[in-house]
Specification:
This protein has 21 helices and eight strands. It has helices at residues 3-17, 20-27, 47-56, 58-69, 111-117, 136-147, 166-180, 191-204, 207-215, 232-247, 268-274, 287-301, 307-316, 321-338, 344-360, 364-375, 379-382, 389-404, 410-416, 422-438, 440-459; strands at residues 31-35, 39-44, 74-79, 156-160, 186-190, 219-223, 251-256, 278-282. It has a five-stranded parallel sheet, sandwiched between helices. A three-stranded mixed sheet has the order 1-2-3. The structure holds adenosine-5'-diphosphate and magnesium ion.
Length: 460
């Protein structure tokens, strides 16, 4: 049997196991380039498809190939642009920017372009999203939205601290929706981007285009909506877009670093729309989940580390998955550069050093600013004499963070908040520590403040 005949039979098997849309999208333009006893090389028309097949359908393809050829081989995916069919009938919608070519006629659906214009990054899919108690509800809701767009929960509002997977989940919804139905118009944008577009639209008098772009979507994924706070024109546009999409049964998914009730300077009608579907939060991952995330990353990058080392990394970074990935990189780089296996003690030392370097970059002023912004209390009040409950509380949080994160001496902390002596500081730190033990949602908020401080130094 020649390669083409063999491949046709393999694809016939695949076809029985996936939906017609999935088949059309991922498998219909593939070809077996070569197959020997060890390896089968599969040609795909672009990187997006090659990546998706490798990530999601590797085992399926391998099994189907083994059934037909009788050989268990490894698979490799190669990009062969010539595999793109000349004519595709997948989208008839001439007006869609996603499907338009420069001559304004449908040539072929270029998935790279589709991907780019939908704002999706192939890195973030459901397959590499680890599920644990901290994100189970959000992940299940996200999947439900893909399976029943516009019907399951609308909008789906996902919130949680920095680096906990909100963007990943939003993006995963985009990929999955397209996978289930490649004809959907899916768009991922972050709120700052949308705001810039809005200003641009006002300036150039192209508001009509701006509105059309958003109101014709089937799945609208809007990230970091907390930035809508205080932006009246954007709130107005969002409100109208929301209503149009909602009444047309289109799906909206929104991510934010806080729940709708805590976004300040937000019109009430917008707030109630945002909270009107399902509001699901993502909290900090527990130890098992952190280990699972690290193992998944290692598996993806084909790197082996002893389990004790992986556990030591998971032990060191608790509050932010982006930081966790950063810590893993630090260790992998260290192992590669020394050429020896690393000990658990050395892992701790390396990551501690990292943390210290970051801490050194955080100033007292930044802590004051971030806490003041977070609680909506002025810096002058925190350093002043007012004793109202909110001011006193923000002041205590400042003292706690200066102690816990910056590890400053008590005397220095006292002078940072203009207090007489260090017993005030000790008292404040203890009070906050107790509150942290009692109240998990308060813990999440303090973690958020910490990670946003750490992230600021990362960006420097
Ligand atoms: P957020 O938008 O909440 O700040 P991101 O979605 O950007 O966070 O996630 C930060 C990093 O952590 C990304 O690289 C993402 O892939 C990874 N990540 C977050 N949650 C998970 C998870 N549950 N499983 C695997 N990786 C995750
Ligand atoms: Mg994000």
């Amino acid at each position: 049997m020649n390669g083409d005949g063999l491949w046709k039979q393999v694809l016939d098997k695949v076809r029985l196991k996936v939906t017609p849309q999935t088949y059309e999208m991922w498998f219909s333009e593939t070809k077996l380039l070569r197959c020997d006893d060890k390896i089968g090389e599969i040609g795909c028309k672009n990187q997006y498809i090659a990546h998706a097949l490798e990530e999601r359908y590797y085992m399926l393809l391998k099994a189907c190939l083994a059934e037909i050829s009788g050989k268990e081989v490894d698979l490799a995916f190669r990009v062969k642009p010539e595999l793109a069919m000349q004519k595709r009938t997948i989208a008839e919608d001439l007006t869609s920017p996603m499907f338009r070519t420069s001559e304004n006629k449908i040539d072929e659906v270029d998935f790279n372009k589709l991907l780019k214009e939908s704002g999706l990054n192939p890195k973030y899919t459901f397959d590499n999203f680890i599920v644990g108690s901290s994100n189970r509800l959000a992940q299940a809701a996200a999947l439900a939205v893909c399976e029943n767009p516009g019907k399951a929960y609308n909008p789906l509002f996902i919130y949680g601290g920095v680096g906990l997977g909100k963007t990943h989940l939003l993006q995963a919804i985009g990929h999955k929706s397209l996978e289930l139905n490649p004809e959907l118009k899916v768009l991922y944008v972050d709120t700052e981007h949308m705001l810039n577009e809005l200003y641009e639209g006002i300036r150039r008098q192209t508001m009509k285009e701006f509105r059309e772009k958003y109101r014709r979507l089937d799945v609208f994924l809007l990230d970091d909506i907390q930035f809508i706070s205080g932006k009246e024109a954007l709130q107005e546009e969002f409100f109208n877009t929301f209503n149009t999409l909602y009444h047309a049964g289109k799906q909206m998914v929104v991510a934010s670093d806080r729940p709708p009730s805590e976004i300040s300077k937000l019109e009430e009608r917008v707030r109630s729309r945002l909270a009107g579907g399902l509001v699901a939060d993502i909290t900090v991952p527990d130890f098992e989940m952190r280990v699972a995330i690290l193992q998944k990353k290692l598996e993806q990058d084909n790197i082996a580390l002893p389990e004790a080392v992986v556990m030591a990394i998971a032990e060191c970074v608790k509050y932010n998955i982006r930081e966790l990935e950063g810590a893993l990189n630090t260790i992998v780089v260290y192992v590669r550069s020394t050429g020896k296996m690393i000990t658990v003690e050395e892992v701790k030392r390396q990551l501690q050093k990292n943390k210290k370097d970051m801490k050194r970059k955080i100033s007292v002023g930044e802590v004051l600013n971030v806490v003041s912004e977070y609680f909506g209390v002025g810096v002058d009040d925190i350093r002043g004499s007012r004793r109202t409950a909110d001011v006193a509380f923000a002041r205590q949080v400042v003292m706690y963070i200066l102690r816990d994160l910056l590890e400053l001496p008590l005397i220095k902390i006292a002078s940072a908040v203009r207090r007489q002596d260090h017993t005030t500081v000790l008292h404040a730190v203890r009070k906050i520590e107790e509150a942290l033990k009692r109240d998990p949602s308060f813990r999440t908020r303090v973690d958020e403040i910490k990670t946003s401080l750490l992230q600021k130094t990362r960006r420097l």
